[in-house]
Amino acid sequence: MEQKKEVPITALSNDCFTYPKKDNFILSLFKDDEGEIETVAGSASNELTNVQKLYELFIRNEYYSELNTFNYAEYVTGIGTGNSTAIAPADESIVVGQGLGIGKYGVTAKVTTGIQTLSQNIERVASAFVKKLEVVVDGIEKLQFDVFGFSRGAAAARHFINVVLDGENGEFAKTFTLGCQKANLPLIYDFDWDESDEMKANCEITFAGLFDTVASVVNIFSKNSPVGLDLNTHTDNGDVRLWIDPRRVRHAVHLTADPTIECRDNFSLNHLNSTDEEHFHEFVLPGAHSDIGGGYHSRLSFDNPDYLLPVLEKKLVKRVSRTFSERWDEEKTKQYVLNELEKYKVRDRLTGWKEEDYVIEPLEIRQEGKNDGGRVIGKLYIQRQVEGDLSRLYLRLMYGLAEFHGVPMSDENSEVWENKDMRHYNIEDYGSGFAKINQSVLELAKNGQYSALKQKLSTPELKRSFMALNLFHHSSGDDIGMSPLWDKKEHCYKRASYPCEQGK
Hints:
This protein is α/β, with parallel strands linked by helices. The chain has two domains: 24-298 and 388-498, no CATH class; 309-385. The chain contains twelve helices and 16 strands. The chain has helices spanning 50-57, 94-99, 107-120, 122-133, 152-164, 171-182, 289-293, 330-348, 390-404, 434-446, 450-457, 460-468; strands at residues 31-32, 35-36, 62-64, 69-71, 143-150, 203-211, 252-257, 269-270, 280-285, 312-324, 358-360, 364-367, 374-385, 486-487, 492-493, 497-498. Strands 5-6-7-9 form a four-stranded parallel sheet, with helices on both faces. Helix 3 (107-120) crosses helix 5 (152-164) and helix 3 (107-120) packs parallel to helix 6. The radius of gyration is 25 Å and the shape is elongated. InterPro entries: Tle1-like_cat (IPR018712). Residues 196-298 form the T6SS Phospholipase effector Tle1-like catalytic domain. Pfam families: T6SS_Tle1-like_cat. This is T6SS Phospholipase effector Tle1-like catalytic domain-containing protein. It comes from Vibrio mimicus VM603.
């Protein structure tokens, strides 16, 4: 019997990487003759993000009599998406909401939406007391917030924290107080919005769980861009406030992507402030942006583990175009294009990507004008199978730390991670100890072992191991705002990152 031979991923035809045509299957910022261009919001495919998965583990609509506490949660959809669904784009231009981070469904607008939704739904909380719990409540004495976000959602989470802590005359206090009054569930008479002492505070942020903050709000009136849009890396985040007060936020955890893996120009990192404080922690973790916060498909999410389409990656990493004026100059131009693609590949491979995963497609020759001149176009792709399980490791990290700090979540005594009916939480071992690493990180996080976690997750050996397993996505490409940023000093592609200043 003849043994079946596996076809290398680089030998697969373009059709093998093509999804069935469907509106908004993957959202994009711009579209031209060369294909779709990725956005911050559309940087991952359509699997659940870690924020969505954490929301599902949150203990909702439960009253704890011994603590005199009621747990309630709201999930606000991503930046640039409508307010009724996590998948469909908003009914405004996708460019404005997703690509630019501004507009009706931008960062600050989403915060306002969250505030309004929470305030309107206080009636549900009041109703739960009366109908289900038979508890007499004369008012709300204390508000404690656990806030999570990923990417621009992390920027929105940080901005939301600021708005909550703006005090009695701030947007949140005014809207929420009105909602409480309408629900006949008022705040207590001497409710103090500004007290920072943990023992006395009526309003506080108990936990901020942030995945790779990318505010990336575009300057729409840039003089440096022919279309008036500044898509380059910068620190101007408009009205979005990212600095969070360490006196009012009890614990903050920020999980960030490796700057050599996530090196896109338009995905600059906004660091967490006050990381010298013992209750504010920032991790640098192996992986790209959505390897940290989730969204890339895992084969475990599907009924058939041999269904490879969602884990096949074909990324245009470099496009070179050059004109020639005479027919005799065509061969010279072809060689120039090929040389440029090879030079780019050498640079790109400094990160650790595998030589065998690169493909240079046959050159395209376009005749232009009436003479013998034309244009040579060359394209370099990275074409491979990439597993989408890495974000599930960082989900365990964030969950464990949140549980340690008292966030009302439950993994059903760790059964969630192994339960085959909870496929979005499972991981594949790959015969490499990946499952053991996941279990170890979860246990360390549940015990608040920050030093051990940072040491375990920052070793060069771990990064090389994950690279060999194809757990990292190649996020940069030859698209607007998605090209990598070259660091001349360190002679490699490296992400820009910015410290967080108070008041910004």
